[in-house]
Fold:
Amino acid sequence: MRNLVAFFAILLAMPAWPQTKLSPRWEELTAEDFRTAIQQSENTCLLPFGIIEKHGPHLPLGTDLIDVRHVVLSAVQTEFAVVFPEYYFGQIFEARHEPGTVAYSTSLQMQLLQETTDEMARNGCKKVVIVNGHGGNEHLLPYFAQTQLEKRRDYVVYIFPLVDSPPGGPAKKTTNDMHAGETETSKMLIARPDLVHIDRANQESGADLARLKLPDPLYTAIWWYASFPQHYSGDGATGTRELGKYDMDAWT
Ligand SMILES: [Zn+2]
Structure:
């Protein structure tokens, strides 16, 4: 189940279409229209979860937030659901040495996310789908979902993790492509091409320095910095709109 629309289709047995088209964006609805939107979405709300961190020398700090919101807002054109406003309060301690990174404390991340989903549920969102757009949240979010069993709640949290595109798309030119490289640059060329400074992509190196040698599968947090101290992994100059469209369509 790696397709966002297919996933929503299971949550929404019979989507009901309104007389006049409502905005899916929470913050754009009037209070009265919000009530209608929650009914129309059959109590399903989406929380696109980004981050604010350096993305190589050429992509904006909000890349993950911008991309995940682009995909979610496209998906709800097919299956209506209410989309929570910009949310970027996730795990990003490994980029605190870079300008512009916003890294909240662990306890605040958990408390803010819990109070956010609680408030969504109080407003009628009984199925809360957190759509992740940032690799550094991939441990945080399943843990958050597991903690929902700590006490009885009147809503369910689902996590839609980062997904790989299916095979068959445009051939990729690079193998090291984890952060602000070929794939992410291509996606941003679809979401916000005006924010891509592709001419700057080679001002820094995104090569893997491989400075930490640990036997597989041993994990420690400094692995990322050891490999990519400039918070850049790949070669953004190789990004194309063709690959971006394939990946964004697959994600949607
Ligand atoms: Zn990213």
Observations:
- The longest strand covers residues 44-49.
- The chain has a mean pLDDT of 94.
- Strands lie at 44-49, 82-83, 127-132, 156-160.
- The helical segments are 4-11, 31-40, 63-75, 106-122, 140-147, 182-191, 223-227, 241-251.
